Amino acid sequence: xxxxxKSLNFIEQIIEEDLKKDYKRDDLKFRFPPEPNGYLHIGHxxxxxxxxxxxxxxxxxxxxxxxxxxPIKEEQEYVDAIKRDVEWLGFKWAKECYASDYFQQLYDWxxxxxxxxxxxxxxxxxxxxxxxxxTPTKPGxxxxxxxxxxxxxxxxxxxxKNGETPERGHVLRAKIDMASPNMLMRDPVMYRCLHKNHHRxxxxxxxxxxxxxxxxxxxxxxxxxxxxxxxxxLPHRELYNWFIEKVSKPGDFEPKQREFARRNLSHxxxxxxxxxxxxxxxxxxxxxxxxxxxxxxxxxxxYTPESIRKFADSIGVGKRENLIDVSHLEFCAxxxxxxxxxxxxxxxxxxxxxxxxxxxxxxxWLEAENNPEDESAGNRKVxxxxxxxxxxxxxxxxxxxxxxxxxxxxxxxxxxxxIIKGEDVVKxxxxxxxxxxxxxxxxxxxxxxxxxxxxxxxxxLHWVSVKHAIEAEVRLYDRLFTEEAPDGDKEKDYLxxxxxxxxxxxxxxxxxSLKDAQELDKVQFQRIGYFCVDKDSTxxxxxxxxxxxxxxSWAKKGK
Length: 559
What we know:
This protein has 13 helices and 29 strands. By secondary structure, the chain is an alpha/beta fold.
């Protein structure tokens, strides 16, 4: 039976309809247009996957364009980080573009608009302009400067450009309709005076274009066919089209703006302003802190590009906003890491286990499978000796029949090793167990084929040989916020919901195969979770980050 054809999402349907009408396949061109005022987050990842995915589907070019029109907030650091993130996700752009590349062309077009009576210099304060714009139910009133002569407007605009006017002295506004039901059409500001150095153009410009003026015109210059943006830009579409109509000529190819809904992620915020606040106030270490929803944070935590692309593809694009549970992103990570991450042993809350009938100075190297999901992953050797570390929670002095781990008088198997039986414990003065004594069956070695090795026991424990163990710093990351929608409560500050247990640092003991692990190497600590090597790691002090637990631990906690 033939495999069913994947249905098209509504954006693909728009493109298909355009191709049936007056678009040719050679006309198709897309773009990803971030503003370099912060690091990209998981929401941007969906937009990256959408635009570059369309480029792959239609074999069409996709530009990476930086909408760098605000020198106050934009930095080269952010440009570099964005390029790194897009490349890491596995995408290649056709051209690297900048809105600042078009500053002269935008200025020249603005001059033409003044000459044609479509723009004017307004000398009101920003507060006065906001007040005279009216409300959604009340028309705005015209600026007292709206009918300045073309000559006066050109002279003032030239002075703005040359830095001869103060920063808040004048703005250039489009002359549209102060009674428009769409408030964005009520003479929007096109330029403001800013005497700030730009990360690319330095001090060449004293005026900077507003986003609505620069964005659509950049699309037009680059001959982008479809400009996809999130739903909050739907009211901007009318202005987008109006501006392009003013600069285009009959027969020019004009871009089409269309909107899709954001996919918000639970237990997360994606406002760049709020994310920056978290960094500046020390709630997190940096933009790439593994608790951050930034792409760089997810990468450092151990997420793979494949898992993020899978996540973006699985949630799709829609016309209505909804909240995606972060557990779905974690599921995508587990699904990919399960296929690629080697299984290793690490103990994070150790208690010493002594096999009393094992020779004191003897050791042996046992065969261990690297990944049962990948036959090509092969095997490795792990050292076994008389003294081992096991997880403290894997032992109880006495337990009911539902406890399938180690207890006194009960047998369990040590992974890849022998069957052991709990015999006795040693405690300190406060009653805490410091040693567990047990015996082992020498004939029960895993894989030996003996009758004893085939004996069935219900529990299997992971372990690490004490004298061979690597001591490591292990960072147990969890969700940064305790609430599903941390910035959804207007009565409370989102910072009230910061999870005080979002990071717990422990000392772990790992098998020696990990001594040469490199930054971003990914492993599964058996029975614990998926981990990766952090950039802070050194040969003397390895550092591992928990990417995700083996199972969704939050599902048990409830909401």
